[in-house]
Amino acid sequence: MDTISGATRRNITLIILAIIAIFLLAGIFYATGILNKQETAEPDPSASIALLSQDMIEYAEDLNDVLPQRQGLNTTFDSVAIAPEKMFYYYSVQNLTLDDVSVPSVRDSLYTEAENRIPCTLWRPLFMQGVEVTFTYFSADNGDKLLSFSRSEDRCHEG
User: Fold this and answer.
1) Do 33 and 55 share a domain, yes or no?
2) What's the pLDDT at 20?
3) Which pTM does this prediction carry?
4) Which of 55, 77, 115, 141 has the highest local Cβ count within 10 Å?
5) What is the C-alpha separation between 137 and 85, in angstroms, rounded?
6) Number of domains, the chain
């Protein structure tokens, strides 16, 4: 009867342990996504720019190329910014304070000013359907945020 020597038996045991370790590591790598090509984690925030339409990116870039622009006696259209499904218009207003904006007629005037510039029925090109637009006014004198409101679909609401 053939017997396996102690050294050979030890080598076989080491080989079996190595094979088991390889399978365990492969299972761990697969479970953590290293070998599995499916993404299990949240998308990278820097990749969110890919969610923006090229038309929206070009629109914002083209608009920012010609800004800031004076919109009235005391109002300047400063810039626009975009995010997935959102667009932000930033204005600065001279000679206006937070106390002034607390007066409903002044606040309504700023709201109407933005609405007149971009009427509800005309303000969205096709690529902006479903995009929420926020208008934010800042004091040109001290940088205070005076008023912010958003328009989603055809309704406006303060934010």
Assistant:
1) no
2) 77
3) 0.61
4) 77
5) 21
6) 2
Give the model's confidence band at 139: pLDDT under 50 very low, under 70 low, under 90 confident, else very high: very high
Q: What is the pLDDT of residue 57?
A: 84
Instruction: Assess contact for 56 and 68: CB atoms under 8 A.
Output: no
Model pLDDT for residues 2-12, shown as the tens digit of each residue: 566 777 777 78
Strand bridging mode 155-158 / 145-152: antiparallel
DSSP strand pairing (86-93 vs 155-158): unpaired
- Is 134 exposed, middle or buried, given 0-12, 13-18 or 19+ CB atoms closer than 10 A? middle
Confidence of residue 95 (pLDDT cuts 50, 70, 90): very high
Both 107 and 35 in one domain: the answer is: no
For residues 95 and 111, membership in a common domain is answered with yes
Tell whether 30 and 106 lie within a shared domain. no
For residue 16, the SS3 value is: helix
CB crowding 98-119: b at 16 or more within 10 Å, else e: eebbeeeebbeebbebbeeeee
Domain assignment of residue 30, given as a range: 1-41
E strands in the chain: 69-70, 75-83, 86-93, 132-139, 145-152, 155-158
For residues 129, 131, 132, 133, the Cα torsion angle rounded to the nearest 10 degrees is -90
